[in-house]
Write a structure and sequence with these properties.
Layout lengths: L1 H9 L3 H23 L2 H18 L9 H19 L20 H16 L3 H12 L4 H8 L3 H19 L7 H9 L1
Helix pairs in contact: 1-2, 2-3, 2-4, 2-6, 3-4, 4-7, 5-8, 6-7, 6-8, 6-9, 7-8
Amino acid sequence: MQRDLVERAQSGDHDAFEALASAAATRLDTAARLILRDPDRAKDAVQDALVRAWRDLPKLREVDRWEAWLHRLIVRSCIDELRRVKRRPIEISTLVADLPTVADHSNATAQTDEIERSFSRLDADQRLIVVLHYYLDMPLPEVASAAGIPIGTAKSRLHRALAGMRRSMQVPDGLAHEQMAEQVSR
């Protein structure tokens, strides 16, 4: 179904592109908000990514890679947006829809606040890697490709980001990488 929509959109079908864009808009917006930490700049980045997608869609060779290609476009748009505005990003809270539902709301609120504070202390490059890897579930080679950096740089940024979050959250060094990743992706 998606392949058909992409092929129709490539040939200029506005309705097919609208269906593709609508299906991806929420996920792109959430990723951009997490990277940029500003809802208005995130909307600008999503709009820019979708304009680029429409403009460059006829050049997309691998129709089945639509999602990965769209993720790369949102990353580029976020990076461009970060370059445009060199000042410190505005801090926003995580969307309620992204939070786990638990019975003990005070514990969940405290934990979410702690994760949010530690995530907000990361620099933009580290936030980008964390969002791509844990939120968008991209493997590290794709993260590196989307960010336009070598795989080793992506790995070291991810390692430094998680270590920084552990330190700021005062998480014991013995906590498994997977457990920390689970905390970050919530």
